[in-house]
Every structure is written in structure tokens, then in C-alpha cells.
Design a protein that fits this description.
It is a single chain. The protein folds into 2 domains: 282 residues, Carbamate kinase; 42 residues, no CATH class. The chain has 9 helices and 17 strands. Helix 2 crosses helix 3, helix 6 runs parallel beside helix 8 and helix 7 packs antiparallel against helix 8. The two termini are 18 Å apart. The strands form 4 sheets. Strands 3-9-2-1-12-16-17-15 form an 8-stranded mixed beta sheet, with helices on both faces. A 4-stranded mixed beta sheet has the order 8-4-10-11. Strands 5-7-6 form a 3-stranded antiparallel beta sheet. The longest helix is centred in the first third of the chain and has 26 residues. Helix content is 32%, strand content 22%.
Length: 339
């Protein structure tokens, strides 16, 4: 299969931190050694690459640290916590991937970039926050935080105990544009593998008087990867998850793998509820966003007038990290193509 010249590879959070692990640096480095070994199979001469990653557990740990140390040091807002995780995870990825590539005799620079993602302050998601973040709270503490900080708090069940607890919820607005898109393109052209838009990027809105201001929100990492792929004019977006292929009727009698589908078929499956929002849904939505006209996903006019974005040469590949190289050769995975 022809991947084209520019490739955006999105790895899931489980490539860095697995269920049941504590999140130590040693655990994350060991996981990344396996992930980067798989990713290295996609690095070829003449192929420009950007790598994106999840950061949910890491940001969650930073928020827990915030809460535990709030009497000693000031707690930081969510956008700055996201920036912290981008820096630390980007460092781990660039260190590990550089080492793996060097072992294979591949001479490529790997650089990580703290990345901002533009969202619209008028996005309806800000009126209906739904993304749980941070630690669990008791009812009294949740009420106090709601009153003192204006947080939206939601009643939830704790995963381990099933006990009724409370968590903060924030908005998950749609990504519109990557602020650092020009410098990412420039580094790609110079041959660097760029680690960018970690955790969906830091959500920012246009500020009065110019520039951008951070907002406390969470951006879906797959949708942000699609926005980044648009902004660097990628040929292929590869989304690496924990299954080798997308399945229709997943975990039901008669489930079947999907080898290939068009955007129209993907939209039909989404409308039928084939891909739930908590699992494959965002990945299929990201595929549709990347393979559709970019104005379709925008709530405002951020794009240059008259710009041309060739869609027909593009593709999305969804597969597991382990099977990334095989999927790139067309041997497995699910391919989504334009209409």
C-alpha cells in the first residue's frame, strides 16, 4: 500500500501506560520501547512523519498531585497540566524513538513540540461539559469545590469499588486548527520526526487583541490528529489502537472485520450506532473529518480563502500498534477512503 509522502501516526494512551500499571517512569519507558519498535517500521527515506499520542492517565496523575499538594503549592489549571504532560511524554518518546532508530541505523532527528489546538469559544460543548478529569471526591468536598471554583461536578461510580463518588467534568470541544502547524511542516520537510498535539493539544481560543488564551477543556486526541493531518496536508493518517481491524457488530454474534470502507459507509455505520463514542466512534469520526472538506468540521472561518486540499489521494488506516507495519503494506487493518 502506498502511504504517500506525509504520514501522521496517532498512538493510543495504552502504548505509554497500560491498565493496572502505576505510571512509573520505568513502566512508561518499557512500554514506549515496544511502541517505538513498532513505529520504527514506518520510518522510511523520503517519508515525512508526525507522531501524536494520548495523555489521559498522565494528566489525571498531575491533577491528583495538584490536589494532594494544594496546601503547599498552588494548583495549576488544566491547560497548563496538559502542557506539562506534553513536555514529559514528548521527552520520553523522542528519547526512546531516537534510541530505537539509531540501533537500526536510521539517521533521523526526533523532536517534540508543545502544541496548542484552537477551539471555538462558542462550541456547544462548553455549555454541556461531559469529560471527567482528575480525582474522585466525596459529596461534601465536591460541593465545596463547585462553590469555591465554579467547577461542574458529576456523580459517578468509582471503577475499583463501584462506590458512588463525584468527579469534575469539563468540555470536549472540536479541534479547529493547530497553532504550530507551520513550524511542524517546516521541521517535517527538514527530515525530523515531530512529536506533536499530545493528548489532543492544549485547547486555546482566540484572545481579545490577538493571540490565544488557554481554556480548561479536553480535546479528543484522534480528532486533533485529524486536524493536524489536515494542517500538514498529510497523505495518510494512521490511527493505532488495541484491535487489528475495525469490526461491524463488534462483540455481537456474527461480528465481522471491515477491511475497507468509504467515508459514506463510515457515516452510515456511525448513524446506525455501530461505533460507540466510548470506543471506536472517535476514531471513525476522525477518519471522516480527515477525508472530508475541512470547512465541514469548522465552527468559524480559520482556513485560507481559495486554499486547495486534495482529498482523493488521502487515506486513513486503523489498526493495532503491533500490526502497524503490516497494515502499511496493505496486509491487515481497516482502510477508510474518500467518497
Amino acid at each position: 500500500m502506498e502511504l504517500g509522502r506525509r504520514l501522521v501516526v496517532a498512538i493510543g494512551g495504552n502504548a505509554i501506560l497500560r491498565d493496572g500499571q502505576k505510571g512509573t517512569a520505568e513502566e512508561q519507558l518499557a512500554n514506549l520501547e515496544v511502541a517505538c519498535e513498532a513505529i520504527s517500521g514506518l520510518v522510511h527515506k523520503g517519508v515525512e512523519m508526525v507522531l501524536t499520542h494520548g495523555n489521559g492517565p498522565q494528566v489525571g496523575n498531575i491533577l491528583v498531585q495538584n490536589e494532594a499538594a494544594r496546601e503547599q503549592v498552588p494548583a495549576l489549571p488544566l491547560d497548563i497540566c496538559g502542557a506539562q504532560s506534553q513536555g514529559s511524554l514528548g521527552y520520553l518518546i523522542q528519547q526512546t524513538l531516537s534510541r530505537v532508530l539509531k540501533k537500526k541505523g536510521i539517521d533521523r532527528d526526533v523532536v517534540s513540540l508543545v502544541t496548542q489546538t484552537v477551539v471555538d469559544a462558542r462550541d456547544p460543548a462548553f455549555q454541556k461539559p461531559s469529560k471527567p478529569v482528575g480525582p474522585y471526591y466525596g459529596e461534601e468536598q465536591a460541593r465545596r469545590l463547585s462553590e469555591e471554583k465554579g467547577w461542574r461536578i458529576k456523580e459517578v461510580r468509582e471503577k475499583e469499588s463501584g462506590e458512588k463518588r463525584f468527579r469534575r467534568v469539563v468540555a470536549s470541544p472540536r479541534p479547529l486548527m493547530i497553532v504550530e502547524r507551520a513550524i511542524i511542516r517546516r521541521m517535517m520537510r527538514q527530515g525530523a520526526i515531530v512529536v506533536a498535539a499530545g493528548g489532543g493539544g492544549i485547547p486555546v481560543v482566540r484572545a481579545t487583541g490577538g493571540g490565544f488564551s488557554g481554556v480548561e477543556a479536553v480535546i479528543d486526541k484522534d480528532l486533533a490528529s485529524a486536524a493536524l493531518a489536515h494542517d500538514v496536508n498529510a497523505d495518510t493518517l494512521m490511527i493505532l489502537t488495541d484491535v487489528e481491524r475495525v469490526f461491524a457488530d463488534f462483540r455481537r454474534p456474527g461480528q465481522r472485520p471491515i477491511g475497507q470502507m468509504t467515508v459514506a459507509q463510515a457515516r452510515k455505520h456511525l448513524a446506525e450506532g455501530q461505533f460507540p463514542s466510548g470506543s471506536m466512534g472517535p476514531k471513525i469520526e476522525a477518519a471522516v473529518a480527515f477525508l472530508s472538506d475541512r470547512q465541514e468540521r469548522s465552527l468559524d472561518s480559520f482556513w485560507p480563502a481559495g486554499a486547495s486540499y486534495p482529498l482523493q489521494r488521502r487515506k486513513v488506516i486503523i489498526t493495532s500498534l503491533k500490526m502497524a507495519a503490516a497494515a502499511a503494506r496493505g496486509e491487515t487493518g481497516t482502510v477508510v477512503l474518500p467518497e
